[in-house]
Specification:
Elements (H helix, E strand, L loop, with lengths): L10 H9 L3 H8 L3 H9 L6 H11 L28 H25 L1 H21 L9 H17 L5 H28 L1
Length: 194
């Protein structure tokens, strides 16, 4: 039995995460059944050529897989020799408070989904010109069903690429700044304690 690829390495998982798609959406763009997409994403079936060909316009918009981010260096202490050691309990308590607050802010950011929506909307906006060029016209323009299917596809592409309201984007950036600051403070305190 073939081993299932980790979700981060599965091309359908990456595609869904990058563009914020459901499996049904992937099936729509590839013109295959949702069951085939589900089986391919879970690793129960290999990626068929029909699925890959149908998803090619979207797949070409994916960036290469991410590389891990290296943590910032901790500044050396600049205390005078003979300075008393800090109160480890107080530093550890503050570290735990920072991590707790950062966790609550992350939950808040995920609850409003602004981070995900903003990232996904940006990905769609960047990919929209290439995707519109990849779907230039209905396969059979005289067939009303083909024309309607193509028009639906174009509407869906524009819908996914719609921008977020400025207040949602601002709220997300402020939350991210607070999360980064709290996590950096917790990491510095941990380094001091270690």
């Amino acid at each position: 039995m073939p081993r299932r690829a980790p979700a981060s390495q599965n091309v359908i998982s990456r595609l869904r995460a990058w563009f914020g798609l459901r499996q049904e959406d992937v099936a729509f763009y590839a013109n295959v059944s949702p069951e085939l997409v589900q089986a391919a994403e879970s690793g129960r079936r290999s990626l068929s050529s029909n699925l890959l060909i149908g998803l090619l316009p979207l797949l070409q918009q994916l960036p290469p897989p991410e590389t891990p981010v290296v943590a910032a260096a901790v500044l050396p202490p600049c205390l005078a020799p003979g300075t008393a050691a800090p109160d480890a309990a107080a530093l550890d308590f503050r570290r735990r408070v920072c991590l707790h607050q950062a966790g609550r802010l992350r939950t808040q950011a995920w609850a409003q989904c602004s981070a995900t929506r903003a990232r996904v909307a940006e990905h769609w906006a960047q990919a929209l010109p290439a995707l519109l060029a990849a779907y230039p016209a209905p396969v059979n323009p005289t067939d009303p069903d083909d024309a309607e299917l193509h028009a639906g596809l174009i509407r869906r592409l524009h819908y996914h690429a719609r921008p977020l309201p400025a207040e949602d984007v601002t709220r997300w950036h402020l939350l991210q700044a607070r999360i980064v600051a709290l996590e950096a403070e917790a990491a510095t305190l941990e380094a001091t304690l270690g």
